[in-house]
Amino acid sequence: MTENKKEEKYTKLINALKKQSISLEVKQRITAALNNELAEDKKILRKQHAELKKANEKLENHIKNQRILYRNLIHEVKNKFNEIYAQFNFIKQNSDNKNIEKAITQTNIIQNDFENLLEWTKKYSLDMKPEITNFRFNLIVENIKNMYPIYQGNMKIIKKYNTSASIKTDKKLLEIIVHNLIKNSLNCRNKGLIIKILFTEDYKFYRFEFIDNGKGFNKAFLKNQDFIENTGLGLILVKKFVETLGGTIQFENVESEGAKVSFSIKNYDYFEI
Predict the structure, then answer these.
(1) Could you list the residue range(s) of the whole structural domain that residue 152 is in?
(2) How is 188-239 classified by DSSP, letter by letter?
(3) Which one, out of 75, 108, 127, 164, has a CA that is 20 to 30 A from the CA of 47?
(4) What is the CA radius of gyration of the chain?
(5) Is the residue at 239 inside a domain?
(6) Which residues have CB under 8 Å from 263's CB, separation 6+?
(7) pTM of the prediction?
């Protein structure tokens, strides 16, 4: 009912009550009708108020999360500048041609990371649809490993999966997930780092485990899995993209080892795109 029609209905009922000729019984019926209308309007107003309150809370949370997301982005950019500084020191201390080439390669990777950070931040706030292709999972691992030539002597990746296995999912998003998990391990321990990667599949899901021998996750983060307050941009994106690919993710610390990340994503050979 529109506001004008509602007002007309109230006016008719009130004018009817004012008539002297109507009986007490009719007045009682009109009064009951008015009370019913008022009760219904109160329900509608309460519902609208609750919806507005919920929308306002959602907006406030969105603004808060965006502020923290951009804060994490700034922190990530700061880390990239630290990496560039480390590259210059590396060149200074290891000035033979082979090491200079490695440092230049790593600096190019850092430049690409800047571009990817901006792109990933835009994608984070969008409802993305996966772009599904077939590819070998091991190629992703090898490509990312080769992106860090200066760590080759200090990083060992143990592959507990069939290196020729093909999977069907969004290659770019899975690359971002794997890249950020390996970078997270490197940030925790860049000497003597060991990363175990397990990969299995069933007819519905691909399942992955990344286990390193670093210092593990922040206790505050593990307690409530708060991706906004207690982690960097990398793990926020990992969680977002795992969920985009129809999966779930868990974080834990493994006794006598370090951090463990377990996640699953849809097997698009089974699910319709």
Answers:
(1) 130-273
(2) H--SSEEEEEEEEE-SSEEEEEEEESSS---HHHHHH--TTTSS-HHHHHHH
(3) 127
(4) 30
(5) yes
(6) 177, 207, 208, 238, 242, 247, 248, 249, 250
(7) 0.61
Residues 6+ apart with CB under 8 A from 36: none
Closest CA to 110 of 80, 145, 138: 80
| Token reading at 145 | 């490993």
CA distances from 83 to 80, 105, 113, 248 (A): 5, 13, 11, 31
pLDDT tens sequence across 72-104: 666 666 666 666 666 666 666 666 666 666 666
Q: CA distances (Å), 176 to each of 89, 100, 162, in order?
A: 28, 27, 21
Place of tokens 């990992």: 238
In-domain check, residue 95 = no
Of 225, 126, 134, 241, give the one whose Cα is nearest residue 181. 241
Interhelix angle for 24-93 vs 3-18, to 10°? 150
